[in-house]
Please model this.
Amino acid sequence: MIRTILIDDEPKALAILQNKIERFCPEIEIIVSTQYPKKGIELIKNLKPELLFLDVSMPEMTGFEMLQKIEKPKFEIIFETAYDDYAIEAINNCAIGYLVKPIDNEDLVKAVKNAAKSIQKKMALEKNQILIENLSIKKFQDKKAVIPTQDGLEFIEINQILHCEGTEGYTKIHFKNRKPILSSQSIGHFAKMFDGQDFYLVHKSHLVNLYHIDKYLNEGSILIEHHKIPVSRNRRNEFLEIIKKR
Model:
């Protein structure tokens, strides 16, 4: 059983979440729930949960602000949020789970299963610390990302990523000053993860960091250091417009 705390300032949302967990997630043991973030901090300190369901937007303090007040947050988190691009981007970059309200039953089950796997790997503290660190950084390139690989998780500085190359459902990530790594996630995962954030999907199998482009060739390809990357015909015009504006 996964010892779990629920924190949401809306009583109705809290009741619905608890009901869904009891119906669809038998591996979850809800040890306590609260509407008050300050009380939640004390409960976490005293009860030491393995998993926390945490609402992002609360009037007393946001879920992010609450997390920043907890020393060494070693628990897995599933954030709950209305569709908030900033919140989802911040959470996604750190391989932390989230659910968009109203919560879908299948999404809940999937998030809990992913959290259970992460609990076994015992890497919650590192992921949470990167999220906290990223929240204080304004420039996207200066942030870090958590990259799932077959061996575990890699903690990467985004400005070191040159481009991502999709290959048979996996993604080979090329870097500026180190050897590539192979991620267990698809190129679509990274396209979504970095959507609108200094990266562009120039080809169905190639996602490039716009900060590292050295040259565009008229034949329809770009150079990034020693890599030559094709640009799809149907994406060239939009890509060139983006480059011109930079």
Q: What stands out?
A: Helices lie at 11-24, 37-47, 63-68, 85-92, 105-121, 124-135, 187-193, 233-245. The radius of gyration is 20 Å.
